[in-house]
Amino acid sequence: MDKLAPGLIEVLRPFLGSSWVVYGTNYRKAIFIFISNTGGEQINQVVLEAWRSRREREEIGLQELGPVISQAVLDNPHHGFWRSGIMEEHLLDVLVPFLPLQRHHVRHCVLNELAHLGLEPRDEVVQAVLDSTTFFPEDEPLFSSNGCKMVASRIAFFL
Q1: Strands 21-22 and 25-26, how do they pair?
Q2: Quick one: average pLDDT of 77-93?
């Protein structure tokens, strides 16, 4: 959504609105998934503040992140939902934030990928992949910059 020209998303508004039937087709059971990176910095800040106050990542609720993400979308004039009737009319049912992954999450990804490849986990490979992963912030490297996206290619490099 952050790459979509503002206003273009309005073509979907009839399908998300209260009428449900558009051109004779019932869209009541249709599911639309909109993916965006907007709000990522704000999500990371909320998660970092939670960590600093010794709250577990799993304790962060949607009620805490929803308004932060919505505001980030509404404040971004380059976002596809900027000044959108879809947002103004509250036609989105749920925002699903993706929280940054910590080192132990990336470790699980490495172990799962090794198992998927039919390989036994080797501590030196797991550690090498973790060491090659970028974590942020610089002063407290807690969260993976790329999640687990690079795990498969890095495993192949360290085998």
Answers
A1: antiparallel
A2: 80
